[in-house]
Structure formats: C-alpha cells, structure tokens
Amino acid sequence: MSNELLWILFIFLDFGISIILFRLFKKEGLLAIIVMNIILCNIQVVKFIDIFGMTATLGNLLYGGIFWATDMLSEIYGKKVAQKGMVQGFAALFIMTVVMNFAIFFTPSSFDVMHPHIKAIFSLMPRIAIASLIAYLISQYHDIWAFHFWKEKTGGRHLWLRNNLSTLISQLLDSLIFTLMAFAGTLPFSQLIQIIITTYLLKLIVAIIDTPFIYIGRILAIKMGEYFPENR
User: Fold this and answer.
1) 124: helix, coil or strand?
2) pLDDT band of 125, cuts 50, 70, 90
3) Concatenated DSSP letters for 154-210?
4) Alpha carbon distance 202, 179 (integer Å)
5) Number of separate domains in the chain
6) Which domain holds residue 207?
7) Smallest Cα–Cα separation from 73: which of 139, 161, 14, 143?
8) What DSSP state is assigned to residue 106?
9) Domain of 195: which CATH number?
10) pLDDT per residue over 178-201, tens digit each?
C-alpha cells in the first residue's frame, strides 16, 4: 500500500477516533485527544516519509488533530476550556520527555533487546520536545485567539471560516518555529526549507479535511445537549 493511501486512511482513522471519543466522553474526550496526539506526534515526528513527491515528517498528521480538538473545545465549551486543553497538552509532552529521558539512564538487562531502540528515539526528544513545546504554545495560543476573534467578527456564523482561518495561520507558525528549532544544523538548508513547505502543505490538507468533522462534532454536541452558543 502506498504512503499516499496510508496517509489518507490515517487522516480518517484519527478523526474517526476523535469523533468516537467525543461521543463517549464529551469534553473529557476532547481533552484526551490533545494529550494523546501531542505525545504520539512527537514520537512519529522523527520518522521522515516520501509522500506526493515530497519529503515530510509523519507527525504532522496527528498534530492536525490537536487543532481540531482545540477548535471543538472553543466552539462548544468556550475559550477558557480550550486554553485548559492547551495547557494539559503542554504538561503531557513535558512530563513524557522528562520521564522517558530518565528511563534511558537505567542499565538494561543482558536479556534486553529494546534499549538501543528506545534510546535512539527518546535521546532525540529533548531538542524536539523543546521545539515542539515552544511551537505548540505559540501556535495554539494564536489558534484559540483567532478562532474567537473571527467568531466575534462573523457574529457566530460561518464555522468553516473561523475554523480554517485560525488553523491555517497557526499551522504556518507551528511549521516554521518547530522545523527551524528542531532540525536547523542537522539537515542541509535546502532540505530544511523543503520540510517546512511540505509539512505546511500537508497540514493545510488536514485542516481542510477536518472541516466536515468539526461540523459533525457540533451536530453531536447539539444532540448530546452540550452546545449552548449563547454562553460562549
């Protein structure tokens, strides 16, 4: 199966799981999505793939799911809850980085076969995690601010517009900050630029695809009695 087909299937798998978690656990499900995706995407980001004739990091797909969950929290539960989700994601990544790097210092058993692989992945995490934490905070702060800015400007109409306008700029900020901080000096400049461009282009695709899912999420919220726009 080609990378392109796997990538598309992966998008629908991620958003499908996200919708199910929201249906089952409501607000807590959305908060869980942020925590799970921030951890998983920072592990996957060390894997480079060739897709649509471009080189990109794998982690950008799950990262798009974080923005969907943040926008869902903003739309349904309000700005303060969305900011709470942002902080929980930051805490989850920070704790994972500290704990896994601490685990590397344990001397493995003579029967152990996984230590070299764990070390290879998580010894890279401090720089990647620092870059991700800074990029995450800046881009998520902008995303939440912009979502509510456009919601106010449009009088609460055009969910697709505030969802996309907030996410597209936020993802651009994230791509620039993260890629430069995580990989500058370790990759040729031309490849660094290529990763910034391709990563952002793939995030644009994910952002556009997430639009019907945020409408599905809002419909579910209304049916579950979770949506009170007058209080947002």
Assistant:
1) coil
2) low
3) TTT--HHHHHHHHHHHHHHHHHHHHHHHHHBTTB-HHHHHHHHHHHHHHHHHHHHHH
4) 14
5) 1
6) 3-105+114-231
7) 143
8) S
9) 1.10.1760
10) 888 888 888 788 888 887 888 788
